[in-house]
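User: two proteins, same treatment. go.

Assistant:
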Amino acid sequence: MNTKEKIQEEFDVLEQEIFENKIVLFNDEVNTFDHVIEMLIYACDHTPQQAEQCSLLVHYKGKCTVKTGPYDELKPRCTILLEAGLSAEIQ
């Protein structure tokens, strides 16, 4: 393994550790699609298309990862989702 490959491998591992946290949104029987979509756009900076796709995944699969990143960046976003009445957690 040459030096360049070793540095790239170390970078890949470090990058993976930084972004290992994720917000998972869970399905519920309370919130409308429109509310979920609006909150994903607002809290997670989704495009309307991304938010709609995530809302459909949550509805049909029961859950969906809606944002990944460092914990410090995810915590306020997850708090917004929770305060809006959605079921979400950071994993």
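Protein 2:
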Amino acid sequence: MSDLDATMAAAASGMRAQTQRMRIASENVANANSTGIDPSVEPYRRQIPIFETNELDAGAVGVRVRGAVSDRTEFRREFNPSHPAADETGYVRLPNVDTLVEMMDLRDASRAYEANLNMIEAARAMASRTLDLLRR
């Protein structure tokens, strides 16, 4: 595998990892108001992606999402005694998801995805230019 191929493989692994990161952040946003059906059921817990390096062909190092772990921070609480999930004091436990944090994470993942895409485009342009020079 050439250096250009290794570059594209590493960038592609970054794109895959950022896609999974965006999916997890999107799930967090989608469930930002998902409560339990009654006080005994926990609401949705925010998920955090776990990244790890992995060796690709020709010694290139890429990245992948190993999985996601639950954020163990406290749930938000809101006074709403008429809600079915309200406890005996009238408070409802809400997910520990901050949509502002998730939107910033989505933006960061999007930019990282774009950076990896630019790396692939640069490697392809270099390969194309090399072929053009060899044809002369």
